[in-house]
Amino acid sequence: MAPKRKRTTSLQPKGLSAGEQLKRDALPGPSSSSPWAWVGTEVTDAANITLEHRLATCNLSWKNNNAFCSNKYSTNETSSSKPTVPLSNANGELSEDIIIISDDDEISCTKKGCKTNPNCLNYLGQNAWEDEDDAQEEFFKAAKLGRDPSQHSREIDLPVGLKVVIILSSLAINKSIFKNLGATCYANASLQVWYRDLAFRSGVYSCEPPDSITEEKYKESPIFQLQVTFAALQEGNKIVFNPKSLVESLQLRTSEQQDAQEFSKLFMSHLDAEFKKQSSASTKTLITDQFQGTQVYGTICYACKNRSERASDFLEIEISFESNSKLEDRLAASLIPETLSGDNKYFCSRCETLQDATRYTELRQLPPVLHFSLLRFVYDINTMERKKSKHSISFPRVLDMNKFVGSKNDRERATTKDRADNLYELRGILLHKGASAYHGHYEAQVHDIETGSWFQFNDETVTEIKTLGDKLPVKKSTNAPNENNDENDEKPNPSQVRKNRINARKRRRIDDSDDEVIEVKRKSSTGASPRPVDKSNLIASKDAYMLIYAKKGITKDFNQVLPVAPTSPNPPPRAMEVVRDLNVSHDEACETYEARQKAREHFQELRREVRHIYLNWAVTQYTDSAIVSRQALEAWLSEHCIEAALQQNGSTEIPDDSVSTNGDPTTIPISDILCEHGALDPMKSKDMKRIPLHTVDLILKETNCMFDPLLKPADVCVDCVSSIFKEKLYEIDHPKLAKKFEEIYLCPEDDLGYWISKKWLRDWKLNKPRMHTASEADPAPDSPDYDSHVLCEHGGLSLNMTSRRKISVEAVELLQQLFPSWQPLSSDTETCAVCDAEVHISKEDKREARKRVEDEKARLKFIYEPSLDSWANGPEMVSCAVLPSQFIKKWKRWLNNPCDNLRPDLVDNTPFLCEHDLLGFDPNCAADLDSTITIIQEDQWNTLQTLYEGGPLIALTKRPKEDGGGYVHDISICADCRMKRKIEWETADIVIHLSRPEGSKRVKSSSQQRPATYARSNGARQSKRLRQYKDHNEQRRFTVTKSTTVKDLKIMANEEFSIPTICQRLFYQGQELDDNAATVGSLQLLANDVVYLREAEEIHEIHDSDSEEGPLSKRRREEGLGFGGTLLGNVDSSWSSSPEPPPSSSLPIAEKPCLACTFSNAPQALSCEMCDTLFK
Questions:
Q1: Do residues 429 and 471 make contact, with C-beta atoms less than 8 angstroms apart?
Q2: Which of 188, 230, 291, 843 has the fewest CB atoms inside 10 Å of its own CB, making it the most exposed?
Q3: What is the value of pTM for the model shown?
């Protein structure tokens, strides 16, 4: 249903109702209060503009009738409306018969109605300060306090977590501070385990740079970054440390998940190589002494009892297991001897024959720290992929390795007698979370010997735990530093919590001086040391991936572990310098945050001052005032007053009124109401507001803000007002003149009149002529744009009557008052005799010109019409000549239109000769025969010489194919000038040759197909055989400059061959042009060089399981690169050198292109299969 048409609003036919006042401001019609109402009435000359007129242009004059609105937020200000006068009956009339007519109508103040009123200071954002909650929210928002850095301060009883952030822009990093965007959890877990090995940590700290390495180079090495990481974990004051520099020094790919066991092996191997470069003997053998054990693989012959053994070192013991296995059982199973018999007999070197034998494995020596690698990732022969085993394995807290060390007899004796020399305590568990072997997450459960507690490390999240294995920890973590674990739920005071953290950090600081060492006493959260843990000896896990045991000193009852009070090694000064800078930076951030938080206490004072200002800034007509922009006032209320208060009181309290402001005041620009002359712009008066001068002083004093520049109402721009006045006056006067002109300009045909431009006349008669330019006079009828409509090029009257019109004498007199210099031609003026003579050229002359064209066309038929090129393929020798292609182009243009195009003067072959009068091109090089050269027969040249002068003759002789083909030339070739011609160019043509295999011809759309043509416009002529070959091998010429890029070439090829740029492969001299930003100049392409284009085939793999053809077979998962390409993956590289980049693979040239026809031949071809050109 169509909507109802709105009824036009109109006055009530019955007039006003009884007692209703007539509101004069609502009546339609022109208003004398308009800013420019005085133009053309009071003032008709710019020299007579007064200050009052300039004020009116900005609505600042009393004539504008803009109300001085009362302050809606002030309770003391009385209403400006007058009291109501009681109605009295003059002559006994009834009260309902009286209609009040008053000039004192009160104009209501609304946000929309007063937006452009400079005298209304309401609706500028005061509401935000009236509501205390809203004001406080805006205050805190402008304060930009951000996150409280003390929330991330390290607590005394919790270790430091590790995180890795992928390198992003600064904005992205700031937005993702607490989010681990990388996949380096495998490294984080391993680092947490190694850090808690005090001997290993001490060895890392003892490393020094080699003499041949500079200090700067050493600080980029992994060993130094490991020192910094350990020092941050030990002495850092934040709960999280980012080991980004360590990851970068190892060249690890942070977006790829890797195997923790493989990382452990490779990193230990790298550290072992670095430790061996140290001068300290203990550091050189640190990996060997701390982690390396010895095992023996032996064989005993049954016949001769010969024992053959081979010792081998190990850094970890691999354990294969099944469901519900125990570590001791699997370890014992791996040591069970194996019988070699039958087809698996052993060749005894003493018996020199195959014999039954026993193969055994023995652990001879165990390291202080024992690593067990649980083979949880197995290879599935059915799917040909790795998969994760879900089997559970149990392992003890205290492991007695005496039952597994030595020979079989030694192990049996250990089961009957308690021994304490190979007793190990569980120190760490590496967990792999996730169901797949190709992805997941690594976590670590590590025993901190310094606090005697167990912690779970999940990257940056560190949690104290009391239960080991797969159970999720629920205790205190670094991600919830304010969580209260006590039985009462009372929320602690945040300020007290921050003070406690600061005091804890101070207690943990250790003096680096050798004279005084402060022992750090760590206090547990429960008040007892060590913390209570699960008393059960066996731990079961389905996610355990690596187990770390350490040899411990024990009592006779080896299940009771002696309490140990270890001493942490001191980090090296270089690493501590880095950590100390990080600590200072964090402390400063905390202090800055606390200092800025003091500004919260000053909010009420700031609100009182701001409200005091806007509650008392009422302005009247007689108040000394300044002019500012509405946007500036809104910005002061919403932003600048808060920012100035925060800047002024960032570290000190707000000063009293008697104290002068500290620092430079905050400047609020009012450029949005200024003109180009720096004064008030009348065209921007809608954004102007008038405020008292004492308010400006109060804003500076109370809030330390000032408006720049400070302008008064009298600062309305004189130049702008004058310019606008002239334009307004033109808008008033011109329609009057146009209307008067319309009444008198018509002229009877027989009367005398004057010629004027029809276009000028049609435009000037409009109320707003398009020709008019602001602040400029209208162009005269004889101005350059319109003069040619009346006058010809010789200064006489033009023959073209359609562009001019006759007007009356009275109209000319009116226009001459406006344009005194205009002198029009009368209607009895004769037309230009010269133009008249040119128009009447005899038809006989045109026939003569056409006859000459037809004559040359017949005589030079070999140029105008296509040739069968029979002379080029004939068996005999053919004499030829070189002809400029530019001459042919000019001659054809003259042939098509002899009246408008000039006939060529001569045939000029001098550009083809160098300064030494030798050839600047090679006739036998197809690349030299570019679009500027055309070869014709010599008799055709002689015919051409009878009609046109020129030369010199460059004679060539075409040899038959039997004699090798090509051209014989009498003039020698100048090699230097030829190369100079090919190199020194600004614009040149290059050829892009496209080769498509048979059957792959691309069909162009109808819009892309070119019309069939037989005439060639330029270039050397090709045989019919070559034109037929173009169906599968196409080539096009493109004009390029030295700055043309490879991307530009691909775009050109896309437009010509309809091949997407992503499917294009360009080759030049056998090398692929794979850099799209490379230019033609940088590639050193010569003029007329050939670039080969190949179309890459697009392969689309369909993985839609809902396909109608049934489910597809599962695609085998591709293994990743692992640590290939990193520092750990390159065995020959050290930390001081990056891995060598892989050698760039150049595309082998599998084809031999012909330089004459560009056909791609087989590599072993001796001549071109298409044109029979011999290969050199």
A1: no
A2: 843
A3: 0.46
